[in-house]
Design goal:
Layout: H1 6-16, E1 20-24, H2 49-52, H3 55-60, H4 62-78, H5 83-95, E2 99-103, H6 109-112, E3 118-120, E4 123-130, E5 136-138, E6 158-162, H7 171-183, E7 186-190, H8 202-208, E8 212-217, E9 229-232, H9 235-243
Parallel strand pairs: 1-2, 1-7, 2-3, 7-8, 8-9
Antiparallel strand pairs: 4-5, 4-6
Helix pairs in contact: 1-9, 5-9, 7-8
Bound molecules: ligand BV8 and zinc ion (ZN).
Zinc ion is lined by residues 130, 132-133, 135, 151, 153-154, 156.
């Protein structure tokens, strides 16, 4: 549906909704200078994310996988949240627990923009987990002193605290995301190609519970055909327009 003024329509839907949920993907951080997964030129050297973000790639070559993460951590450390991140933090301020932010991103920019409650479906690039003693810690060192980094507690090898392809999402976080989407009247889906599951199943789940789904993306995605409203453009420009009071 493309009403004559989609921005105005979006503003009305947000104002009218008792509960709102938002699902973000790599596209919301693109205007902060962080490459998305599937944009032209891919993400790093000539690897595809699906080749590196897997337990098998890490088992086979932990150093190369860590070089990729260390490179991304360096990029993210220099990046700043953009107006799209800040707009979602403002919406949380306004709606309180009637708003739930769900992200596929691991860059932590939503937190740095002031969002307090962020459901991180795929973990966080600033967390490490020891594969020997399972200790999970935040580690903001850029660059890391050695690759793969070692556990301070037991000397074991650390892995990035993210969810790789083929790995289950954190159970409690996933349940909270599903619950928020079942309860919402409006789901805003911003900056995701809606290809990765189970995150991409949240929009159909919202619709099956009678919620409206609004997509914000610079391009067409598999969700565009079923979304109730498609706002075509950069989320850093659109989100402030539809959220600013
Ligand atoms: C699971 C963390 C089951 C790591 C990520 C075959 C074999 C094995 C598995 C599967 C398979 N087929 C399907 C699967 C399931 C698989 C999957 O979905 N694969 C895809 C590729 C088909 N999913 C999984 O494996 C998941 N786990 O299923 O487990 C299970 C259950 C029980 C027990 C055991 C196992 C785990 C998936 C999580 C993978 N980890 N990230 C890391 O980041 O390093 S996913 C990765 O992709 C990122 O999180 C990223 O966010 C996510 C999704 O991509 P997007 O965010 O959408 O980014 P993308 O580049 O694709 O798109 C950007 C969009 O933004 C574009 O549409 C673009 O147009 C738009 N855009 C660009 N600029 C802007 C913009 N929009 C607005 N404004 C802009 N300025
Ligand atoms: Zn350890």
């Amino acid at each position: 549906m493309t009403p004559e003024n989609p921005i105005e329509q979006a503003r009305q839907w947000i104002a009218a909704a008792k509960r709102v949920a938002a699902l973000t993907g790599a596209g919301i951080s693109a205007e902060s200078g962080i490459p998305t997964f599937r944009s032209a030129g891919g993400l790093w050297r000539n690897f595809r994310a699906e080749d590196l973000a897997t337990p098998r790639a890490f088992a086979r070559d932990p150093k190369t996988v860590w070089e990729w993460y260390d490179w991304r951590r360096g990029l993210i450390a220099k990046a700043k949240p953009n107006l799209g991140h800040f707009a979602l933090a403002q919406l949380e301020q306004r709606l309180g627990d009637r708003f739930t932010l769900i992200t596929q991103n691991v860059d932590g920019l939503h937190n740095r923009a002031g969002s307090q409650r962020v459901l991180k479906l795929h973990g966080d690039i600033w967390w490490t987990m020891c594969i020997a003693c399972r200790e999970v810690r935040s580690d903001f060192r850029v660059p890391l002193p050695e690759l793969p980094p070692r556990c301070g507690a037991c000397g074991g090898m650390l892995r990035p605290g993210v969810v790789w392809f083929g790995e289950p999402l954190p159970g409690a976080t996933w349940e909270q995301a599903e619950e928020a989407v079942r309860q919402c009247e409006l789901l805003i889906v911003a900056g995701t190609s809606s290809i990765v599951y189970p995150a991409a199943s949240l929009a159909p789940l919202a619709r099956s519970h009678g919620a409206r789904v609004m997509e914000i993306n610079t391009e067409e995605t598999p969700l565009s055909g079923t979304a109730d409203l498609c706002l075509r453009g950069p989320s850093g420009e659109i989100l402030p327009q539809i959220i600013e009071s």
